[in-house]
């Protein structure tokens, strides 16, 4: 059974049918779909601008994967903070009320500031983050394509996120963890998270939600920000798909559903 309403902050494939082309994206720009989405996409755009500026000094290439600096460290911190902010927004705007399972606080509600990567991981089940891939259009070497959440397929930790935490809490001894490879993996991860919520919509004033693709040297498929190439998941099962006609649904008062993450 497919879903007859979109979930908050959850972009996924829609079944082919009447008005399915329009319905596949139009709900994203509805003001009730997400709270202040432009704050999240603007932050991404600024980070992307700074990374492109970094590429003027550090060539995007395999040979520079282990290059590290204060500037790269700063960008890794900012990028991962945005990753955390997006995960929290997805959980907050749906249903998520975790409690302590053990200890003296057993049964007590855990505050949002206490949510961590173990909580974020459940979003993968609804957004298929581990099936996204990101391509850097002019990276030189074998690391041109990134799959920032692929390690979650085998229940492993995310190396780039671990590196962020290590270099944040002990920069003196783990400064080299804030390197170019981990920064670009984190940047790709942020792009995946935003794509899994908003597809290619960046919420810029005057922007068009439906754009016409034209021939491109890099093959097209550019995501939000028009730099990274996004390969969206193709592993959605039939009962995971959306199935609605947004031309009718958009006039209803209750036109969105909430994912109950407490049951996942």
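Sequence proposed for the structure above (264 residues):
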């Amino acid at each position: 059974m497919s879903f007859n309403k979109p979930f908050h902050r959850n972009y996924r494939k829609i079944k082919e049918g009447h008005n399915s082309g329009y319905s596949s994206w139009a709900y994203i720009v509805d003001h009730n779909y997400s709270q202040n989405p432009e704050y999240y996409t603007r932050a991404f755009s600024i980070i992307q601008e700074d990374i492109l500026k970094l590429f003027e000094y550090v060539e995007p290439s395999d040979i520079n994967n282990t290059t590290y600096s204060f500037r790269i460290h700063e960008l890794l911190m900012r990028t991962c903070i945005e990753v955390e902010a997006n995960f929290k927004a997805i959980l907050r705007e749906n249903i998520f009320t975790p409690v302590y399972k053990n200890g003296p606080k057993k049964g007590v509600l855990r505050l949002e500031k206490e949510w961590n990567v173990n909580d974020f991981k459940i979003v993968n089940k609804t957004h298929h983050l581990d099936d996204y891939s990101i391509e850097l259009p002019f990276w030189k070497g074998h690391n041109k394509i990134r799959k920032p959440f692929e390690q979650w397929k085998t229940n492993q930790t995310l190396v780039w996120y671990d590196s962020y935490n290590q270099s944040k809490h002990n920069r003196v001894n783990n400064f080299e963890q804030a390197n170019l490879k981990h920064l670009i993996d984190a940047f790709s991860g942020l792009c995946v998270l935003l794509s899994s919520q908003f597809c290619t919509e960046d919420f810029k004033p005057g922007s068009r939600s439906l754009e016409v693709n034209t021939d491109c040297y890099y093959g097209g498929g550019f995501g939000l920000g028009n730099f990274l190439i996004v390969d969206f998941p193709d592993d959605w099962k039939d009962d995971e798909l959306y199935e609605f006609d947004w031309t009718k649904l958009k006039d209803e008062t209750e036109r969105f559903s909430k994912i109950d993450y407490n049951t996942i």
